[in-house]
């Protein structure tokens, strides 16, 4: 079974005051995420503000992270989009750079059919030899990839896992039951990590892993080792943090939290806006 690890964090993209990618801070952030206990990171995903990054910036991000991480954790490149041809080209570029896998989001805005989703992911997966993580997040894409589509895609050799952020435990359970044991289901929401582990999921692609990675890792390890009450206690303790990371559009709260407590990663790019005074006070108290 190919494993990226149980705790993967979708990394924010640090920016300078001029909102250019700060590659020095990118390296510092990689070190920080390793210290937080992460087994892997997603680079240039939603939390990394991928819609506002150019192709050239994404490629340089992949190069910087792969070089600096130097095998200390798994690197998954966010190469999916709503353009199949562009996704293929970026996935192939990421493969040449040496990433460990790619994450492909359900196409947003153009609302393809389930057949269209299947053919989109099949075409990208077959264009590379890398392991592929699917990403279903209907709250952002307006499109839900149903369980039957995921089950069919799981039969493609290098499609190895899915980040499931639909919040539909019935749908997620159907995927787990009807896919090969080598196909891994990750929670796409920190708050659903423990429930998804309980029905046979493997881990989480996290936002809060930036700031409470060690605690999330402890929760997962407690559950896996049979200490379910201990895992529940940690989950309940972390729940306010999980919720607090979504008081505004992701990644506004997590970037603000990093700036307040850990590492200056700068602001967000338009059309997102930085946290307001009330949100900053809330996050200060929460942390």
TrEMBL record:
<dbReference type="InterPro" id="IPR005263">
    <property type="entry name" value="DapA"/>
</dbReference>
<dbReference type="InterPro" id="IPR020624">
    <property type="entry name" value="Schiff_base-form_aldolases_CS"/>
</dbReference>
<protein>
    <recommendedName>
        <fullName>4-hydroxy-tetrahydrodipicolinate synthase</fullName>
        <ecNumber>4.3.3.7</ecNumber>
    </recommendedName>
</protein>
<feature type="active site" description="Schiff-base intermediate with substrate">
    <location>
        <position position="163"/>
    </location>
</feature>
<dbReference type="GO" id="GO:0019877">
    <property type="term" value="P:diaminopimelate biosynthetic process"/>
</dbReference>
<feature type="site" description="Part of a proton relay during catalysis">
    <location>
        <position position="46"/>
    </location>
</feature>
<feature type="active site" description="Proton donor/acceptor">
    <location>
        <position position="135"/>
    </location>
</feature>
<keyword id="KW-0456">Lyase</keyword>
<feature type="binding site">
    <location>
        <position position="47"/>
    </location>
    <ligand>
        <name>pyruvate</name>
    </ligand>
</feature>
<comment type="subunit">
    <text>Homotetramer; dimer of dimers.</text>
</comment>
<keyword id="KW-0963">Cytoplasm</keyword>
<comment type="pathway">
    <text>Amino-acid biosynthesis; L-lysine biosynthesis via DAP pathway; (S)-tetrahydrodipicolinate from L-aspartate: step 3/4.</text>
</comment>
<feature type="binding site">
    <location>
        <position position="205"/>
    </location>
    <ligand>
        <name>pyruvate</name>
    </ligand>
</feature>
<dbReference type="GO" id="GO:0005829">
    <property type="term" value="C:cytosol"/>
</dbReference>
<dbReference type="GO" id="GO:0008840">
    <property type="term" value="F:4-hydroxy-tetrahydrodipicolinate synthase activity"/>
</dbReference>
<dbReference type="GO" id="GO:0009089">
    <property type="term" value="P:lysine biosynthetic process via diaminopimelate"/>
</dbReference>
<feature type="site" description="Part of a proton relay during catalysis">
    <location>
        <position position="109"/>
    </location>
</feature>
<keyword id="KW-0457">Lysine biosynthesis</keyword>
<keyword id="KW-0704">Schiff base</keyword>
<comment type="function">
    <text>Catalyzes the condensation of (S)-aspartate-beta-semialdehyde [(S)-ASA] and pyruvate to 4-hydroxy-tetrahydrodipicolinate (HTPA).</text>
</comment>
<keyword id="KW-0028">Amino-acid biosynthesis</keyword>
<keyword id="KW-0220">Diaminopimelate biosynthesis</keyword>
<dbReference type="InterPro" id="IPR013785">
    <property type="entry name" value="Aldolase_TIM"/>
</dbReference>
<dbReference type="InterPro" id="IPR002220">
    <property type="entry name" value="DapA-like"/>
</dbReference>
<dbReference type="Pfam" id="PF00701">
    <property type="entry name" value="DHDPS"/>
</dbReference>
<comment type="similarity">
    <text>Belongs to the DapA family.</text>
</comment>
